Amino acid sequence: MSEPIEEIASSRYAARLLAARPELSAELADPAAFSRDEMAQALAGAQHDDEASLRRRLRRLRQRVLLRVMARDLSRRANLDEVCGAMSDLAELEISTALRWLGAEGLVVVGMGKLGGRELNVSSDIDLVFLYPGALDQQERYETAGRRLIRLLAELTEDGFAFRVDMRLRPFGDAGPLACSFDSLETYLIAHGREWERYAWLKARPLTGSHHAELMRMVQPFVFRKYLDYATLGAMRRLHAEVRREVARRELADHVKLGPGGIREIEFVAQALQLVRGGRDPALTVRPTLEVLSVLSKKNLLPEQAARELADAYVLLRNVEHRLQY
Which of 33, 192, 295, 296 has the CB geometry, 3.0–4.6 Å to 302, for a possible disulfide? Predict the structure, then answer.
């Protein structure tokens, strides 16, 4: 293992951060993994903060976590699971802390995509959907809370942002309400849900609030059909072709995430097979991509060598992606 301070020296982000806050160099002295408990301790007492202090607390914790994660990753002390786990823990804890401060613990914040799968990278937006159980007359209250939550996390201050927030995966996208009831979500999925939205909801995971089991009982039949859903393969092929056309249009052939053979294509392989067979085999409803590949191999739905090669490539490409982001 190399020395963290040496490895991190090439990061412009780290250089700017340490110049602004030299006391953070302590995070680089034989850095231990940043545990969820340590993050929670740093957020303790946030309910007594004023808004400016809370924003500062959230952003400065992100700085500490990212700096230590970066140091451990670049000095080969951390593996991909640790890096993604730390960033996912940070997002979950900061969301729940902000909601408690707002007095809106009843809002069910659903993590989608990489946050839902606990695969968040070091520069990910967080894809969220805001839901609530109960009557429609609560919508205005929860939409107000949702807007304030987004501002607490995403607005730029002198300390940067905590997390960029993307709300486009909610029902009806940007044209839809910011928060919707469970009943409204169920109606939407039945009447308006499109094939690509099954893919979008595949990793959905409620992070806050209550009635999680009730929510997942609504979502899972939409995502996972009880029959062998081969029609999904056609929809996935069309979606994949659209992505390929967009990659070509934007000249992103060498893009580590979107280009041919990149991260997104490995995820497509795993998730297409999940959507086809997950309704009949609960083992295939797991969220993290590497776990999915492992299950597919064990069930002989993907040749063992192919699954291993895809998993190795996925880890390599995610590590490359992180180094580009540092």
Answer: 296
* 139 and 264 co-located in one domain: no
Q: What is the pLDDT of residues 62-107, one digit of tens each?
A: 999 999 999 999 999 999 999 999 999 999 999 999 999 999 999 9
Q: Which residues lie closer than 8 Å to 130 by C-beta, 6 or more apart?
A: 107, 108, 109, 110, 142, 143, 146, 167, 170, 178, 179, 180
Average pLDDT, the chain: 93
Look up the domain containing 162 and give its range: 4-223
- Nearest CA-CA partner of 130 in 149, 103, 115: 149
**Cα gap 287→112, rounded to integer Å:** 10
Residue 253: what pLDDT?
80
Last residue of a domain, one of 223, 248, 282: 223
Residues 248 and 201 in one domain: no
What global pTM score does this model have?
Answer: 0.94
Quote the CA–CA distance of 291 and 214 in Å, as a whole number.
25
Q: Which pLDDT score is estimated for 311?
A: 98
Encoded amino acid at 201, one letter? W
